Amino acid sequence: MDTTTSIGHLKEWEQIEMVVRRHWIVYIQLGIYALLWISVTSTLFWFFWFDSFFINITLVLFWMMFLIFLYIEWLNHELDLFIITPSRIIWVEQLSFLNRTISECPIAQVQEVNAKTKWLLSNLLNYWTLLIQTAWNASNFEVEYAPDVINTSRKILNIVDKYRNV
Containing domain of residue 105, as a range? Predict the structure, then answer.
């Protein structure tokens, strides 16, 4: 089975025009979480190394829980997809572990595409929020930490205009 037909239940005749994933900055945030956790637990481990077996086991359990948390957070960001085909928009969002929603909207129902940047770092690294407002039953599509939001929104609008002109 072709992988393009299994993503978001694409039809055989559909071609993917664009795929939008999260910006790499979310992985930097996960790395900061990891560094903070390493510094806190290594300090605790250093002070309590010879004191108690119970404390050492507790630190190991905390490490295991943190690694599971880090993996789930990475998975939640990695599996978020925004797929644009010539006929529809598909938003695959991983809400939490084993909890995913797939929303779609015909491309003809797209009313507005917005790009929002909020602060200095998002402007320097060229990421933030991509919002697609639709006249469809599904709610509006919002992708936070989308890369190159201004050019991405222009490309989506070009795809919508190309569909309407046909």
Answer: 20-166
- Is 5 within a domain? no
In whole angstroms, what is the distance from residue 146 CA to residue 79 CA? 13
Q: What is the dihedral of CA 159, 160, 165, 166, to 10 degrees?
A: 70
Q: Dig out the tokens for 48 from the structure.
A: 């309590």
One digit per residue, pLDDT tens: the chain, 166 residues? 344 445 556 777 788 888 888 888 988 988 998 899 888 877 876 776 666 777 778 778 888 998 898 999 898 888 888 888 888 888 888 888 888 888 888 888 888 998 888 888 888 888 889 999 888 776 688 888 899 888 999 999 999 998 888 7
Closest by CA to 44, choosing from 66, 71, 27, 70, is 66
Answer whether residue 13 is part of any domain.
Answer: no
Regarding pTM above 0.85, the answer is no
